[in-house]
Amino acid sequence: RVLFRSGLLRRFAPRNDGNPAFVLYEGLLRNLQIVPIARIGQSPSMFDPFLLLIAAAFLFAGFVKGVIGLGLPTVSMGLLAVTMPPAQALAIVIVPAVVTNIWQTFVGAYLLDIIRRLWPLMIGTAIGIWLNAGSLTGAYARYGAVPLGLLLVIYAIIGLSKFDFTVARRDEKWVGGIVGVVTGMISAATGVQVIPSMPFLQAIGLQKDELVQALGVFFTVATLGLTINLTSSGLLTAATALPGAVAMACSFTGMFIGQAVRTRMPAEAFRRWFLIAMILLGLYLAGSAIYKLALA
């Protein structure tokens, strides 16, 4: 009716010759309908499998950290690397890692003493990360899952064997510097910061609460260094904001659940089976990566 009043269809009006005009109307309307009719208000599926995978990985990693006090980045990197490259996994892990480590840094009264004792370790780690920057995105990035898997195996074996040694107070500075550089280079290539820094921190005689805070301080420096690497290489972008937010929320949820059940379950038995699972996961990551490289 509007078209007719506007004059667009007036030339198709019935004439005195008796020809029906509705045939012309119908043909014109069919030509005008160029956009298919669709339902309004529909949206894609709210359950993205990618986000569900991230949520499950970080919920479990946070649970492990809540029960035994460590392992969130290591566990989450290992689980995510099963389905994605280590560089992409690290871009998701880095946000909750930084937040939880900063929170752990300021829980305790030993911050100044830790900085005085561990500054060579932290500076060495930053240097190592800088020296090996780009290893996750460079020509050798496709080999990243192999050292990551091997590191998980080494980490678990050290934990199961309860390998113990001590570093004298007078040797902390120079040993810490070397350990820091090695840790930084390994971390830049794999995203894992526990080898060889963890055995060193356990060997310098820190008390339990001081050790927990020292881990927070050290991992804060290491993850901030990795954040700079990821940003400069273009891996840490706005696209990782939503996965990072999901990861952070699930990490804290898992931590709270783990802390709640820690007193009700044998933590040592859980730790032993968890480390055995890490060995199997590490062997799978390294083995599958080597197999894919052999077929390439």
* Extended strand count: 0
Helicity, in percent? 55-70%
Shape estimate: globular
Radius of gyration: 29 Å
* Strand composition percent: under 5%
Describe this protein's structure:
- The chain is mostly helical.
- The protein has twelve helices and no strands.
- The chain is globular, with a radius of gyration of 29 Å.
- The N and C termini lie far apart (66 Å).
Task: Name a few traits of the molecule.
12 helices, 296 residues, disordered N terminus, globular, mainly alpha
Task: Give a topology summary.
Blueprint: H1 2-6, H2 22-32, H3 49-68, H4 72-80, H5 86-105, H6 111-131, H7 145-161, H8 172-190, H9 197-203, H10 208-232, H11 241-261, H12 267-295
Helix pairs in contact: 3-4, 3-11, 4-5, 5-10, 5-11, 6-8, 6-10, 7-12
Give a brief rundown of this model:
This protein is mainly alpha-helical and 296 residues long.
